[in-house]
Amino acid sequence: MTVTNVAPAKSLQAGALARPSGIPVLPAVDLNLGTVTFVTPAGHHAYWSAEAEQLVQALTQAVRPARWIPGIGTLVVTVAQTGVRAGRGVGFRLAKQ
């Protein structure tokens, strides 16, 4: 499991990188096979995750829709965190099936 900071940048200075915004998705997770499937405007996607149980647990605590970031092959789930209004992003690397 990879923790990803989801707090928006205060200001973008020259040379600063903007955080990837991702595509909102509704993932379906098969705990027995470890498969994760979802649909984006580009079509249906099927992946595999070694952390399927942790992904399901994060999805049950999600405070906003999960986001797929295709450039880095990561599904980010934002979960509640005390003292952080925007929540905390938890990233899951997904492998092509």
Describe this structure in words.
Residues 7-16 have low confidence and may be disordered. The protein contains one helix and nine strands; from the N terminus they run βββββαββββ. The longest helix has 9 residues, at 52-60. The chain has one helix spanning 52-60, and strands at residues 2-4, 23-25, 28-30, 35-40, 43-48, 66-69, 74-81, 84-93, 95-96. The chain is globular and about 40 Å long. The protein has a five-stranded antiparallel sheet, with helices on one face. A four-stranded antiparallel sheet has the order 3-4-5-9, covered by helices on one side. Strand 7 and strand 8 (84-93) form a beta hairpin. With 97 residues, the protein is mostly beta strands.
What does the largest sheet look like? 5 strands, antiparallel
Helical/strand content category: mainly beta
Radius of gyration: 14 Å
Reading the helices and strands in chain order gives EEEEEHEEEE
The percent range for helix content is under 10%
Q: Measure the end-to-end span.
A: 19 Å
Gross morphology is: globular
Low-confidence stretches: 7-16
- Provide mean pLDDT, rounded: 85
Q: Helix count, per DSSP?
A: 1
In which order are the strands of the major sheet placed? Answer: 1-8-7-6-2
How many beta strands in the DSSP annotation?
Answer: 9
